[in-house]
Write a structure and sequence with these properties.
The protein is mainly β. It is built from no helices and 27 strands. Strand 17 and strand 18 form a beta hairpin. The N terminus is likely disordered.
Length: 334
């Protein structure tokens, strides 16, 4: 048991976890957990897991850790313990665990699973592989990781983070994707109408979490960042026939709001008129969220920050360009 074995040195952190409502509450969510597999056992590099589902019926989630070698033989565990929902299981960086049975073949794989119970099925949480030079190899691909919500959207006028996976990470799985363009966006849903969460460079190997029903967009993970990528921008490697298919509801993300791209520094007016009072001067080469328009679309009401104050004001249509990939209606303001 984790808590009864001094080797685990576990830090429990109690907090509140909020999941997006487009996903059913899944198994414990990885929070920077990283382990290294060696010939003698495995070692924590820090991080942990946040507990998110009650598979015990008493407000706790039971996790099981075990390991196998390439022949399928159990070489560690299984060991199990339950933790309070909303809490965290964190293993100190540098803590190591030795195999309880000597392995005889590659690869050596450690699994963390959330147990079946309370009407919930068993669900994978995390897995990691390693090899030993003096062992023969038997191919045992890692299971596809559990589905979690997309990562947070990038705020307006902020640069999206450029994320990357370790080289050759996809080859640990039955199938994976390779980015087949110079650079691509990861989005919060399966279409260009959804917000951007990150960017990836060409050649990056992507861990596949799911696919939409049309199999045109893939839900992927890159360095713990999750998002959707257009299938036209990637190459498929291996077998992805068994990847979970996500429903239209699960594939929905945050829709990009209509935005006004301002060309140059321009006064923000209190009314839709050249004679309207100037609220402040706003810098160009930036986007501003559109709230409405005049009936002839000659002026647009936008949201902006003047100094440190959030305000609403008007731009003349010819002062910039309208961006509305989400194709949302822009209301007329009387």
């Amino acid at each position: 048991m984790f808590l009864r074995d001094g080797r685990w040195r576990i830090l429990l952190m109690i907090g509140v976890v909020v999941l997006m409502n487009t996903f059913v509450a899944g198994a414990a969510e990885r929070d920077r957990a990283s382990w290294t597999v060696t010939c003698d056992g495995f070692r924590s590099n820090g991080g942990g897991f946040v507990l998110t589902r009650d598979n015990t019926g008493i407000g706790r989630e039971e996790l099981v850790i075990y390991a196998t070698d390439g022949t399928g033989k159990i070489i560690f565990g299984p060991v199990a313990e339950s933790f309070i929902i909303g809490g965290g299981l964190y293993i100190t960086d540098g803590v190591s665990f030795r195999w309880t049975t000597a392995p005889t073949a590659n690869p050596l794989t450690v699994y963390v699973v959330s147990s079946a119970g309370n009407g919930l099925p068993q669900q994978p949480v995390y897995s990691v592989q390693g090899t030993c030079d003096n062992f023969p190899a038997f191919l045992t691909p890692l299971p596809f990781p559990p589905i979690q919500p997309p990562s947070p959207s990038v705020a307006i006028n902020q640069s999206s983070p450029l994320v990357a996976n370790p080289q050759n990470i996809g080859r640990d799985y039955e199938g994976y994707l390779i980015v087949n363009t110079f650079r691509a966006n990861l989005r919060s849903g399966d279409g260009v109408r959804y917000t951007i969460v990150a960017r990836v460079n060409g050649g990056t190997e992507l861990i596949v979490l799911g696919v939409n029903e049309a199999r045109t967009w893939w839900f992927v993970e890159v360095d713990e960042t999750r998002g959707w990528i257009n299938g036209d921008l990637v190459l498929v490697r291996g077998n992805l026939n068994n990847v979970p298919i996500l429903s239209p509801e699960e594939a929905q993300g945050e829709i990009l709001p209509p935005r006004f791209f301002l060309w140059i520094t321009t006064p923000l007016r209190a009314t839709p008129s050249e004679r309207g009072a100037t609220i402040c001067q706003l810098p160009g080469n930036l986007e501003y969220v559109i709230l409405g328009r005049t009936g002839d679309s000659s002026w647009y009401l936008v949201q902006a920050v003047c100094g440190d104050v959030l305000v609403e004001g008007w731009f003349k249509a010819d002062a910039g360009a309208i961006r509305n990939l989400g194709r949302l209606p822009i209301p007329v303001i009387p």
